[in-house]
Amino acid sequence: MYHPFFGLQEPAFAIAVNPRYLYMSQQHREALAHLLFGLRGGGFVQLTGEVGTGKTTIIRCLLEQLPSDTDIALILNPMASVPELLSTICDELGARYISDDDTSVKTLTDALYDRLLDNHGRGRKTVLLIDEAQSLSAEALEQIRLLTNLETHTEKLLNIILVGQPELCDLLAQPSLRQLAQRITARFHLNPLSREETAAYIQHRLQVAGLASGSTLIPEDIQTEVHRFSGGIPRLINIICERMLLGAYGQNRNVIDRELFRQARREITGEPASDRPSTTAAPTPKRARPAWLASAIAGFAGITLGALLFGGLGNELPWQATPEPEPTVPKLSAASPSVASEVPPTNITAPDATGSVDTDSEAMPNTDPPALPERPWPRKLDDALRHLADHFSLSVPTTGSPCTESPEPGHACGRRMLTTWNELIELDRPGVLTLITPERKLAYIPLLGLNDQQALTWLEGRPQTVDWADVAQLWTGEFHHFWFRPAGFDGGLSPGERGPAVRWLAEQFAELDSEAEPLSRDRYNQPLQARVEIFQRAEGLTPDGLFGENTLNQLARRLGLDPGLLPIAEAP
């Protein structure tokens, strides 16, 4: 294989599982601490995260840290019926029952109760861990809840860990399951790696594989591209890095460059040979997975948790996706909004928490666009963003890039891929549109306002209104914008966390509610979580109590920290 060519002792991003490559980011360690803390109190513990974010890594570490006096039942296929689920739990815990075709739920439940009482009498604890819990039916979850009714005066006899994708939060939000939701003593949502964590993850794997100290195989700018492509999902980081190294080996090149990255990206996503814009920014939210990522998820469906738990790191899985064919790129017109170039982003609704902006977009329409109107469109993204920030008096650095990288509060840069200007109107956020000129050069429009026919932009030092038809067919679908980021905010807050972002959040709600004292000083406690859930319901968001980027964006808009599009009078 390629590894000797790069001075490695073994493939750094191979699909074979290997526990030596375990990488625990800060949030992975925090998630593990939440689970361990939750198990002390009994009841339910919840861990959620998108596909490939490292949930299995957390589970593996949890199992390794469980005391020796703990019995655990692992449920890997929760889609079975209630009797089958209960019988599997009995089998895992060694609970004896008479097995036949007519074994009732009561018989299985009684057997489990007997086993739990026996374990308690011998001083042993019992844990039930269910992976892919979002696949459980409401009936099965209610039956599992009933298993926790057996308790002593001081403790529950069964601790239950529910692990699943973000859809699990929606499932538990159903009114019929409110009794179970109230018994969750600890919950943590695992976000993808940040840009810095992605770089550390790549270097960690290369060093474990034997890369010489001080050597650079994947430069910093390519690590940034990898983060944009993968959205910080470890599984996808492995895949793109493996492809890049194989490509470099095949071309006898010992350093990864942008050309090798683009080639690897095309092989994974099924893009045609012509360069297209880099369209990834952050992890895909639920219900918004692109086709190529959905195919990848389907390819992993046959991998069981048991094989991962006892074989190695859970984010080292084979790539089995069949690339989706690329759609053609129809033209946009003011009269008939249509779908623009749809390429595989990893997030269509959430801004990039890293604050990074892709200034190397490579979009190429499939058809020749009409002549660009004689207007001095900005040719540099930073210039267009600075015009935007100046117009709305946003807090951005006065020198260098307008995209803040400071830990202090300020406006970071986000990036989305949209399909129609109707989405821009619905988004109601000023930003910068990316154009491709007839000369195949990039141009940028600071977008200040919008209606069905016209756009208010910044040209020649002043706001000007232009017909949407002038720019529609040149727009790549790429949209850059600012979003307010409070100090210490790194993608999301969950119960138990501390820091300046928690303090800022509590103070903002105190101001909104006209309260003299905030609900918390610096800890994300239960009252603050409940207030977040109330705000999420009012804004039409999933009331999971997790203060993520979508909730932050809505709150910033309510506080006037993020401006909306300016109104434009309809043309007569």
Automatic annotation (TrEMBL):
Annotated Low complexity bias: 276-285, 333-345
GO molecular function, one term: ATP hydrolysis activity
Region ranges (Disordered): 267-288, 319-376
Family annotation (InterPro entries): AAA+_ATPase (IPR003593), AAA_22 (IPR049945), ExeA_AAA_ATPase_DNA-bind (IPR052026), P-loop_NTPase (IPR027417), Peptidoglycan-bd-like (IPR002477), PGBD-like_sf (IPR036365), PGBDSf (IPR036366)
CDD domains in the record: AAA
Pfam families noted in UniProt: AAA_22, PG_binding_1
UniProt domain AAA+ ATPase: residue ranges: 41-196
Stated name of the protein: Type II secretion system protein A
Native organism: Marinimicrobium koreense
